[in-house]
């Protein structure tokens, strides 16, 4: 049984890789769209001209921590989202493109 793309929507294009990863990780198309539309964090994607968006699976109300994250990598072309990949990350992933402390100090000195 092959995983089918969601209903034909001109705003979203699903790659075969994304569909196979969604099936592997047990993710629905609606969940991936929710990650893209309301991300908790975004980063520059690994592939050229892409964005990676993340949402935690569920947040512990007492500690504010979470057990896993759902990521989606997409490319925006003329108002159409090309969803390239989707995956689950166990635990909390480190931030990749944070602003270095030296740059923040320089900006604060200028202000």
Q: List low-confidence stretches.
A: none
Helical run tally: 3
Radius of gyration: 16 Å
State which percent range the strand residues make up. 25-35%
* Terminal Cα span: 59 Å
What is the H/E order? EHHEEEEH
Strand order of the largest sheet: 1-5-4-3-2
- What's the number of structural domains? 1
Tell me the major beta sheet: 5 strands, mixed
**How many beta-strand elements?**
5
> Mean of the pLDDT scores?
82
CATH class: Alpha Beta
What does this structure look like?
The chain is an alpha+beta fold and 111 residues long. The chain has a single domain (12-110), classed as 2-Layer Sandwich (YaeB-like fold). The chain is built from three helices and five strands, in the order βααββββα. It has helices at 16-25, 29-37, 101-110, and strands at 12-14, 41-44, 51-56, 68-77, 80-90. A five-stranded mixed beta sheet has the order 1-5-4-3-2. β2 and β3 (51-56) form a beta hairpin.
Q: In brief, what are we looking at here?
A:
It is built from three helices and five strands. The chain has 111 residues and is α+β, with helices and mostly antiparallel strands. The protein has a single domain, classed as 2-Layer Sandwich (YaeB-like fold).
């Amino acid at each position: 049984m092959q995983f089918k793309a969601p209903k034909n929507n001109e705003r979203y294009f699903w790659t075969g890789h994304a569909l196979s990863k969604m099936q592997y990780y047990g993710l629905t198309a609606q969940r991936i769209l929710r990650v893209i539309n309301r991300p908790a964090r975004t980063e520059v994607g690994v592939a050229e001209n892409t964005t990676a968006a993340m949402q935690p699976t569920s947040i512990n109300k007492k500690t504010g921590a979470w057990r896993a994250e759902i990521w989606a990598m997409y490319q925006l072309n003329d108002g159409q989202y090309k969803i390239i990949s989707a995956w689950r990350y166990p635990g909390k992933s480190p931030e990749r493109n944070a602003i270095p402390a030296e740059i923040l100090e320089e900006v604060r000195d200028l202000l």
